Amino acid sequence: MARAWILPMLFVVVGVLVAAARIAAGSPVAAAVSLLLFVLLAGLYSPLVFPRSIGAVEAQRRSAVDARPIVYWRPGCKYCLRLRMRLGRDARRLHWVNIWRDPAGAAAVRAATGGDETVPTVVLAGRPYVNPDPAWVRGQLPRST
User: Fold this and answer.
1) Is the pLDDT of residue 1 over 60?
2) What is the secondary structure of 115-140 as a DSSP string?
3) What CA dihedral angle connects 60, 130, 39 and 16, to 10 degrees?
4) Distance between CA 12 and CA 9 in Å, rounded?
């Protein structure tokens, strides 16, 4: 859990340091804008942007019942963030598994990618797709949800 917050906290610390330097230089408005930018980046790269994660076993069980894809992801992954942002509200219609919080999820990704933990890995009907196009993922969502 702690490593999921390393990058967001690093953004906050750097933002505070940049803001302090700008205040010392006599530019409080630039300091506020810089701090806001770094806090927004921290939010985007935090686990808070993603729908609530579940375990891999539970995701597989649910996917077998409702045919929704499973997305294996990890915080700080720019490709996971891209997928999440492009899916918009449809992201809630997938089952999300944070591989840093779930060892079974990490193992499933390694099995699907030949030993790497390459994310996002989307599993649909038992078949893995590594870093698929978000439009394609949206097209695979069941209609009656």
Assistant:
1) no
2) S---S-EEEETTEEEES--HHHHHHT
3) 120
4) 5
**39 Cβ partners below 8 Å, 6+ apart?**
11, 12, 15
Distance CA 76, CA 44 (A): 9
Q: 73 φ, ψ to 5°?
A: -145, 175
User: For residue 145, is pLDDT > 50?
Assistant: no
pLDDT of 144 reads: 58
Q: DSSP readout, 83-108? A: HHHHHGGGGGGSEEEETTT-HHHHHH
Looking at the DSSP bridge assignments, the partners of residue 128 are: 123
